[in-house]
């Protein structure tokens, strides 16, 4: 045996061994995409404008407060658009004082004076930070909610600037999870000043038809059995942030309800509010809708109960969202795909069968046309498939249905290189060259075309990978793996097989 | 063995005008069909409606489904039978102008989808649910485990898992006795009696439901177009670089653009929709069908050294003839595997396989009849003067 054949054989055996190691046992190593194992894929967009808006409102309130405390006069404070607000009617004499005050309290806002107006603009860097933070917080909250709900191996990832991909394998009730993810879940406890009333006019009668400065109107949630309008205090006594523990329990009539306890700080405030307002109603408001308005019977300190005609499932879901916290910004669904497990297992079965038919058809053709050399190509083909699976295992890549299609397509493409080489060898033999030098010439002359053609297909597969979503990426990956492996199997391995089995002085070649 | 006894000697370039004419006719007819006629149908991936796959317990006809959908004003939905003896169907909702304009959001799609599913649910099933019976075909694994462990604490979970696995593999359960007879489940009689009392077998299940909102659909459309165009440009640059000549790069682009356009033209005459896998197929055609062309160009370059005195046209014909078997066989093996995918791969991937089938046949045609003539045209346009001077 020639010396350099030994290391070549060693290399091939090593790669075979490595590939088997990487994919064995297949049950654990092969990751199936949602289209094969069933599940729900959601793409959602975080409305980061909400975060900017909230920040702007907060700043206005903060500076109104600061201006008042420092005796700075103004007539009006208003938001122009998210990230931009102004104070009007300021006194020119106080400009210096205002400047000092702003510089002292914020670096995130640019400001400018025009006449009696000072305009605040959110700096770009601060804005980017806020948007980014909103997405990250939303992602964390969603992750919390899904973990609380209990989904095995969810994937929750940021995509682009403001998108989040959520993949939930094996979910049977996607609608429930979707709603669970989407609710903003801002919980507020506010004192009721008036209500309920049929409409806003009736509600405001005793206030002269105008909403008092320290109050706002909320609507009852019909799902919770509350109709009509309520007037509640603007400032929340406690919010969802003050909750320490939340769990599902029952109320005194044994209906599902949500029990909660408060943090020490929240408890102190709650105690104060309930102590001073015994006999009044306290509104429990979730996402701007009144859930219930129990009467305060006595001073409550650190625990309470939310009731309101919940089904057990609704109570469970409320516990989940309260535990996970509120979303910092609203979200919008852009894409939703749900595949049931039956369809997935059908796809696997059909894909496998199509793959087997393809590989046997191609093998039959190669043996029929190229005889023993065809066997060589088949060995290379099988090795090629093995390496694809090994590489998929190594990259922890996901098998999708298009991915299976890519592998099947790759079966047809893999033997192309063999065909080019064998045809070239035939050509050289026809020119009267002996077997050894014909093989030699066949491999070396066909190589550049094989390399070029594999590379062009890889290039377009890379573009595909760039643009594609999950399943299509799976296709691009199997295709690329197949083509790279092909350069090795069809050229290197196939050559090695000829070197091993065709004697150097062979008179004929079965091709 | 050889498919052709000797190397053929066909004057392919003689047919260049016919080939060019044929190509132009196909593309023109396709473009007319796309712009004025039948049009290209965009699928759910590009923000058009919702795609729902449904399996029924009993065979049902497309017209029966359409009637049920017409009753709720969705008679215009696209309904296709997927097999399983008339029990499996694919339904795509069509957005009417009013629903589309009202809400540019995904919710408007989903309202229609929910309506479709509700319309197809049988009245009897709804009554049974109202009576408190549980639909064994639709209950989830967790739910069934809970139901069975309550009645059979020691073996409930295992039985529930076996039933759900069986259902996953077989699709809808049509008869409770299946659960007893199947060796994988072999349900004991007492459990069977329990299930008979507490559950019923629903008439249909939803196999999958896919919606892409208009915004994401629009973005995908843009990205898909860009990906195709950029990969064409990448091919142009690569080929021009490898064969040291703009004429070869240009030819590659024309051949590929022709491949894509012909495939698109033929596709426009089918009832198939454009979805992401179709774009994947187009990109694959771009990357793959250039291979044959590369092999031919490679040979031209090689022969230019040995046949120096001969005119380019003769060299090209020789290259095409020498490579004829290769061109046909390489595409042929791809055709074989794609054919298998087309015939056995299932409905979900069928459109993809169809485009690849067209691509693999038509790649041969474009290599033989288009690649070389374009180089000649280019040369006669831009390189005449040089040759005269020589």
Please report the distance between the alpha carbons of the first and last residues of chain B. 45 Å
What would the CATH topology of the largest domain in chain B be? Multidrug efflux transporter AcrB transmembrane fold
Oligomer: heterodimer
Low-pLDDT sequence parts of chain B: none
Secondary-structure content class of chain A: alpha+beta
Largest sheet of chain A: 5 strands, mixed, barrel
Give the biggest beta sheet of chain B.
4 strands, antiparallel
The top-level CATH class of the largest domain in chain B is Mainly Alpha
In CATH, the homologous superfamily of the largest domain in chain B goes by the name Multidrug efflux transporter AcrB transmembrane domain
Please estimate the helix content of chain A. 40-55%
Mean pLDDT of chain B: 86
Distance separating the two termini of chain A: 23 Å
Task: Name the CATH homologous superfamily of the largest domain in chain A.
Answer: Multidrug efflux transporter AcrB transmembrane domain
Lateral arrangement of strands in the main beta sheet of chain B:
3-4-2-7
The interface involving the most residues is between:
A-B, 74 and 81 residues
Low-confidence segments of chain A, ≥5 residues, pLDDT <50?
none
- State the total count of DSSP E strands of chain A: 19
Describe it for me?
The complex is a heterodimer of chains A (511) and B (390). Chain A has helices at 3-23, 26-29, 34-37, 48-69, 95-105, 124-149, 174-182, 200-204, 264-276, 312-324, 341-394, 401-430, 435-467, 470-501; strands spanning 31-32, 39-46, 76-81, 84-88, 109-114, 117-122, 155-159, 163-169, 187-197, 215-220, 229-233, 238-239, 243-250, 256-262, 282-286, 289-292, 303-306, 331-339, 398-399. Chain A is an alpha+beta fold. Chain A has three domains: 3-38 and 342-501, Multidrug efflux transporter AcrB transmembrane fold; 49-124, Gyrase A, domain 2; 183-335, Gyrase A, domain 2. The longest helix of chain A is centred in the last third of the chain and has 54 residues, at 341-394. Chain A is elongated, with a radius of gyration of 35 Å. With 390 residues, chain B is an alpha/beta fold. At the A-B interface, strand 18, helix 11, helix 12, helix 13 and helix 14 of A face helix 4, helix 6, helix 7, strand 7 and helix 10 of B. Strand 18 (331-339) of chain A pairs antiparallel with strand 7 of chain B, so a sheet runs across the interface.
